[in-house]
Amino acid sequence: xxxxxxxxxxxxxxxxxxxxxxxxxxxxxxxxxxxxxxxxxxxxxxxxxxxxxxxxxxxxxxxxxxxxxxxxxxxxxxxxxxxxxxxxxxxxxxxxxxxxxxxxxxxxxxxxxxxxxxxxxxxxxxxxxxxxxxxxxxxxxxxxxxxxxxxxxxxxxxxxxxxxxxxxxxxxxxxxxxxxxxxxxxxxxxxxxxxxxxxxxxxxxxxxxxxxxxxxxxxxxxxxxxxxxxxxxxxxxxxxxxxxxxxxxxxxxxxxxxxxxxxxxxxxxxxxxxxxxxxxxxxx
Length: 284
Known about the structure:
Layout: H1 2-35, H2 37-45, E1 49-54, H3 60-71, E2 76-82, H4 84-95, H5 99-103, E3 111-116, H6 123-134, E4 139-143, H7 146-187, H8 190-198, H9 203-235, H10 237-243, H11 246-276
Antiparallel strand pairs: 1-3, 1-4, 2-3
Helix pairs in contact: 1-7, 1-9, 1-11, 2-7, 7-11, 9-10, 9-11
């Protein structure tokens, strides 16, 4: 009977540890997304390219001077000059066919690709930039995917709202799940709590071992969830570290650790105090 009881306690402890760990892990993932919505938004916006097509037979010095002028603009993050030959090679690779051999000449113009700073990468700003560029005497046309710009703007706003809502909902679920798990553990020891009280133990004396145990339990589950989250980040490090600042990752780890401890200790304190103040006849 003692072995069965011990096994039941171990299983209960492992179950609560695993459930709390994975809830904190999921919460950590959404914390990470929430903290880095702006970073992801900046990355997406700065990936949009505006192509400035140049008129034929323009002197190289004039083109370089125009590119230098673009680099000095506030809206410009970086520029890239694309020669006719490079444009032809890139198109040949994308369509997997030598169109120059078919046509007998290279019809592609020289161009300058502009990556915009995130704050200017929106429909209204790009429209103004397009008008300014079109008025230049060496520019024949300005091209960009208008539908993509609008879609990025809309999706980023929607993603921000969704992640914020899910994170808040998940936080409430985390509190509820951990609270219920702790309450079940304390419920199984309600008679021990009342016995200690009846023999003269103070609230502080009764609470202390439960708080210490919950503090240890909260730290263990938090560290386990952080370890799994770290493995997840390391697996995708080539992409994640390029987008997510390390300080944000460290902040998420700290938030997860504190969340696990505060909720676990708080739920334990409330549950134990409840049974201390409950009458004996209500324990059954």
